[in-house]
## 1
Amino acid sequence: MGGIRRSTSVNRYVPVSMIVDVGEAWTPPNPYSLAGPKDWRPPLSRVIFHETIHYWQYIGHTHLIRLVEEDWGRLRHFDKTREILPPGALRRGFSQRKPEIGFSTQDLVEAHARFWDVQALGPPLLIELELDAPNRDVGEILTRAHYERLKAEGKIWHHYDQDGQGVGYSSLSFDLAMRLAAGRYALPYLELLEKTNDLIAAALFPLCVHFALHSREPADFYLALVARLAGQVGLERGRAIEQAWRALYVDVWREAELLHCELYGCEFFTGQAEIHESLLYQEHPGYRMAHTMLALACDHIQKNRPPQFLVGPVEMPAAMRALWTLDYLLGCCGMTVSRSPDLLAFTAPPVIRFAEGRSWKIGEIFDQLPYQSSAPCTVAQPPPRAGLAQALLEVDEKWNEMLLAGL
Ligand SMILES: [Zn+2]
């Protein structure tokens, strides 16, 4: 895949300040950008959605929380002493591609976000947006003419309804949309696809990345987990893919747990447990808030979701099943049922920043949703989010100051 360049867009998520940066022109806040990105201004929503997936990755995955903890430590040190410490071991390892693996933790993070972009927008829409977008270099994989030809041959949609509207997408279009992610971002998915088939790859991919991102060495762990699971999973065609993720979650967890113990001699933590143990919980305003909101979400799941919604064995205590379910929703964060209401109502990103510094303090919108909870923060006593956005913008400013001072 040599010669394929990454998109040159400026979009990014800033983990240490939790700010979702979309770099597009400001527009009035609209929660549909996250609740239904394919139905509300898709060219803009897809950017907001993609960067928000990163936000959920960074509050939901142990390895990434530890990475932020490292960066936070450097920032705190700089703030106190004006001395710049070198990046920590996890930060240095994040973009490293070991030759025997071929991709990095960062590639895995991007592939996972890409997978949810494709699921949430649908491959045909995403492919068309990318073929149309300036600054996106997809021509080496797919040209507009090639795409139109595939469409005319009936290879993009599964079938057409009476009005000529495409219904269901083909596995070829899903595959193309993943490959359009460019270069190594697609590698982790292609690796799994090679060992299984399109159905099993789509079912296992988000779960394997999810547990890999809880592990000590995500890229290595992902490959080992894929090798372990590839021959073990059989799925019937024709069932909704959401059912496959739900059904496989506990099995993949068990295999991941065994593998983690074999490789590193210990179990892994879920993201919520990791935040609680982390310095971030004591010191970082955004992570402290995220921890509270995750606890509220868990509580909401336990009280309001029907038992069949919960993952894990039925004989397990409901509180434990709710914890597992939240972990599952964070791993499958692009899924419609994950987003609405659980993730959006409780863990919408606190700041979504547009061009010229204007932002959506989107958490405030979702705080108004009437969810009850017995946790210390309730709707009647909501957590103080208004000040949070400002605090995070200040963290962002300090972080930029440190990066500039280090140049
Ligand atoms: Zn990304």
## 2
Amino acid sequence: MKKIMWTVMVLPAALSMSVAVQADTDVSKASQAQVAQHLAPGFRAPKDNEFVHVPPTMADLDEADLHPELKKVIRKGHDLFVNTQQLRGVNVFNSMNCSSCHMGEGRLPNAGPIWPAAVTLPDYRPKNDHVNSLEERIAGCFMYSMNGIPPAYGSDEMLALSAYHQWLATGVPLYQPGKSMYGRGYARLPDPEQTPDTQRGAKLYQAQCAICHGEEGQGLSQYGKVVFPALWGDLSFNWGAGISRVFTLAAFTKQNMPLGKPNSLTDQEAWDIAAFVDSQERPQDPRYTGDVTETRAKFLDTFHKHTQYGTEVEGRLLGDHDSTGEKPALPEGSLRHRTFEFGESR
Ligand code: HEC
Ligand code: HEC
């Protein structure tokens, strides 16, 4: 217990390292690069051709020259982002907050910073094979990562969350940064030297992760608050979530976990742990056709070739069930597929 108390303390400490910086215009590129590294200890320096952005903080918002109504909405978006559990049972059906995976309030490089979405969308997205808006991108994380049902497009929640994304992108030019944004996503690790091994991963998991995430990956909630989110099982992200891809899970783990000790695992260890975590059960992929082998085949190229869903691991066919965890079964047609056939009457 003592250990857990200590580790909980790590969180605010890590966040307080984020030096309050005004929007880009006030800061030279060099000092931005320094701050960006400071935000993410142990990471490589940005390359010359990479766009570096240090998102503003909530303290900066107090000072910003924006309409008070807008500030109110941005604050609500921040609140929803770091305490998404307030939507539990309505839009969220697991133990995640957005900030469980987008760490440092969505500001940290190499921990899925969210500002790039606000300056690159609308854009084509291979996962669903059409052009997505920012709201639809947010809906995607509700659907899969939160095992949820997204708030309606245009709702107060969507507006607030979008406003918070855009606030973090203050000063970033639209589109221009292209694909070279320092710290975007979870920087992919080099391919593993040895094939990732679930048994090696299981041992490492017990030694490095179980103290917080639990021996059964169930996480920990206390007094109705999530302290440690679940890594698998009913309270975790579902089989369609981006982080269920082994390479994403490995990259996230290496660069962010164990909490407070980023970059302490070797690449191979991160791959092994990711293979192990990904070999455990979790709620069904919302794109499920009723048959796991068929669903795997249908989304193989764009997604499941990176997961163990629909494969047999230690005698178990992963994903061969129709449990949606805490979430009521999805209403028919809830995964709206957009097509744009301009010129056709509608
Ligand atoms: C279980 C982990 C997890 C949770 C929880 C989660 N996300 Fe994500 N999110 C991801 C992953 C993985 C990606 C893809 C990152 C990449 O490109 O490699 C992503 C991408 C995004 C992006 C696009 C970022 C970019 O670079 O364009 C946005 C925006 C986003 N998430 C918003 C949210 C919001 C809002 C919530 C809460 C409603 C949320 N996410 C919850 C894992 C998560
Ligand atoms: C000291 C406690 C602690 C340890 C040890 C730890 N984590 Fe975490 N982990 C957290 C917390 C807390 C979060 C949520 C991040 C936040 O809210 O800032 C998290 C988030 C995550 C997430 C994203 C959310 C989710 O539940 O899927 C993954 C994946 C993860 N950890 C994997 C690991 C792995 C793998 C290890 C072992 C290498 C590990 N963690 C060790 C505390 C810990």
